[in-house]
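Re: beginner question about structure tokens

> Can someone show what the tokenized structure looks like for a real chain? I only ever see the sequence side.

Sure, here's an example I had lying around. Input first:
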Amino acid sequence: MLPRTQYELEQIRKQCRKMVIKRACISGGAAIIPLPGTDVAVDVVLLTELIQSVNKRFGLTKNQIDTYDAKTKMLIFNLIKKTGKTMVGKVITREVIIWIIKKTGNRIVLKQVLKYIPLLGQAATVAISISTMRYIGNSHISDCYRLVRGIILQKEGKRTMALLWHILFRFTWM
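And the corresponding structure tokens:
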């Protein structure tokens, strides 16, 4: 369900940011494991689950969007098209995750190299892992937030115009 008010939207954003911090810490823990590729595999699973959870909290999963009325669907799809956001309102597929990994590819390569340097390299790997997960997660939260905020503002704007029209119409006929 889409949030109806700005207050609800803020609460959802706070909850999602907490989810991002938890997932980032798990990602950092996985980065310590000295086996090649384990941290990337963990990150893929974490990102897939995180993006789906954020979409669900904001009311933007494909299944949720399918249940909305036609006007709301059209509004959502127009805003997604205008902003060009690839992870909002879609089923998270392998292609989307590959796109995310390509977006942060330099960090992933650097993590794999630094992993084999004792202590300092491992600490840097953890820091890179945490910062990458937070960057991707918080970027997605911001995208969802802006999209839903636009929907709320447009709906409130229509309600305000309807109220003004009602008031004007009522007083002009008295």
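Each token stands for a local structural state, so reading them left to right follows the chain. The two ends are 41 Å apart (CA to CA).
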